[in-house]
Design a protein that fits this description.
The chain is about 70% helix and about 0% strand. The chain has one domain. By secondary structure, the chain is mostly helical. This is ABC-2 type transporter domain-containing protein.
Length: about 300
């Protein structure tokens, strides 16, 4: 996966990155951004401020679209994040020699949705941010606070869309094993899934401000994911006396959330607070220069 992503970054820097006109991030040297010299200045009628606000939204939309296209061109993420869990889900369901009953689908699939949320947030969001920094992409295009805000906003939005696509593909493929599609069930699961995604994104954003290289980040994310999977497997196959082992396992908490054991509103408030705090730290301490750089 690391090699494939390195190739993707190279393509981004030499191919897709050609579409990233510096003006998208506020102009050369940051002079053209909102609030910069030569940027938007609010007039007495507020037209300048509203024009700057509109242009910022257009830039966010444009950059987000480019990021989505770039990720959709990489089939490896779809394979490991979505199709592999689908295959495992089918294998586990068929090994029971019985079709899942409709009420059991949510509890049976909740661990898979938790894994997809984890992979989308850690490898899709945070891993990409670290990779773009280490490739020199951020140093080449990000010049000031306004540019960083546009970049982070666009990246989070694009990865949110990609994670929703992964979720939808898994639901469309696996749900027929447990009955007919349900828009109510889909909406509930999607809401819980996105809350879970933001929870993992909160953890991933903290990793982006650490002085770690691209390969180190991949190793840490892999260890983190593997540890959660092992704890989840142990707790699922052990007696009730062993449940404290996984009490604070994020995958177990998300599985409980998607199964309805944790109220969505309570989880949404807690996760929103942690995500905003992590986003604040990431924006404040975000590293522009690669770790290997001498600057």
């Amino acid at each position: 996966m690391t090699t494939t992503f390195g190739t993707t970054l190279l393509k981004l820097k030499t191919g897709v990155a050609n579409h990233f006109d510096p003006e998208l991030f506020g102009g050369s040297g940051g002079a053209g951004g909102c609030g910069g010299s030569g940027g938007c200045s609010g007039g007495s009628d507020g037209s300048g401020g509203s024009g700057c606000f509109k242009r910022s939204h257009i830039k966010i939309y444009t950059i987000t679209k480019l990021f989505i296209i770039e990720q959709l061109r990489e089939p490896t993420a779809l394979l490991w994040t979505t199709l592999s869990p689908c295959a495992l889900f089918y294998f586990m369901a068929s090994s029971k020699h019985a079709q899942l009953a409709p009420p059991d689908y949510t509890s049976s699939a909740s661990w898979f949705y938790a894994y997809i949320a984890c992979s989308s947030a850690l490898f899709g969001l945070s891993y990409y941010l670290i990779g773009r920094r280490e490739s020199g992409f951020i140093r080449s295009f990000i010049y000031n606070e306004s540019a960083l805000r546009l970049f982070l906003t666009s990246h989070i939005l694009s990865n949110s869309c990609i994670s929703a696509i992964h979720f939808s593909i898994f639901y469309l493929i696996t749900k027929p094993m447990a009955g007919a599609y349900s828009i109510t069930e889909y909406t509930f699961l999607l809401t819980g899934f996105y809350i879970s995604y933001l929870g993992f994104a909160s953890i991933g954003l903290i990793f982006t401000i650490l002085p770690i290289k691209f390969s180190t980040a991949g190793t840490l994310f892999s260890i983190f994911s593997f540890a959660m999977l092992v704890l989840g497997f142990i707790s699922a196959s052990a007696t009730e006396s062993s449940t404290p082992l996984s009490r604070y396992n994020p995958l177990a908490l998300i599985a409980a959330l998607l199964s309805g054991d944790i109220p969505l509103l309570t989880a949404a408030v807690a996760v929103a607070a942690s995500f905003l705090f992590s986003l604040y730290l990431a924006k404040r301490y975000f590293r522009i220069q690669p770790v290997w750089s001498r600057y």
